[in-house]
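anyone seen this seq b4? input:
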Amino acid sequence: MACERVRVAGKNLTDLVSAAGLTLDVIDAPAHRLDVNAQIKLLDGAAAALGDEFLGFHLAQDFDLREIGLLYYVMASSPTLAEALRNAGRYSMLNNEGVRLGIGPNHAAAVTLSYVDVERYSDRHQVEFWVGALVRVCRQITSIRLTPRLIRVRHYRSETPAEILTFLGCSIQFGSSADEIVFGDSAASLASVDADPYLHKLLRGYADEALSKRHPRRQSSLRSRVEEAIVQALPHGRANADLIADRLGMSRRTLARALAAEDATFSELLDELRAALAKQYLSERELPISQIAWLLGYCDASSFTNAFGRWTGSTPRRFRSIHGAPPRQARRARRANGQRTGTK
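predicted toks r here
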């Protein structure tokens, strides 16, 4: 869908696909499964080419839900929304092995998204597409314009366009400790308008067979769990090996040995994660550098500046001037000029 938008816009799709390590033949083969990291790079490139900072949400708003395939039909034929969401968790790997859906431990109508062996903070557009698509599926299943009580995502954004907030029906908590959609308590028991027990049993059989043919990777590497714990501890300045090991239920020595088995060290993970997050935060011009320093666990901006120079050979301000998104006022002015030109 993203590539089709790039084509329609007359942009250079060949170079865009190549930059993600893919080919047009692969893109044009619907049955071909893409590496999730390449998919994330492709979406980032498409968003930049189209000048659409919220491409994931925009793609989720208007595609035919039946394109999801077997997973959608298993959900739609379920008796209730709660069962539909449980089926989403059970069979989501059929559509994407890098993102797993789950039901919140304390809420039957809370959907969590977890990344498996994929760097979560390399992505914004894919997870935003998942959020928008899941909200639409829940509305379609119940024939009610369900409004989530809460949406949380791990990555940071400084603002969300009004049209996306209208589409979702609620605000989004960016920079949270989880990726999650939570509906009201009564939503779980809502009946599916297309519930069909016979069809559902048949489709479940097909889905189980398809699932058995997959060879899933590990449920979650230690590296990804360490990274999640680090991100939660960073703003408090407490992202050290002792604390992270304790949160994961192991000693510091055990953590070091386990990471070594994955060819990693705690200090390397901490440094790489801070560098990746710094670049992401700096792409949003509205976020002050002093606040970025705090989000990354530095006591002051100068410590962050020194670390950023070590990572990139540049200063945060210079990096932002080259790679950052246009200031909010400039974006609004450009949009207004575009609107005037279009109506001339």
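Residues 54-212 form one domain. The radius of gyration is 21 Å. kinda curious what u guys think
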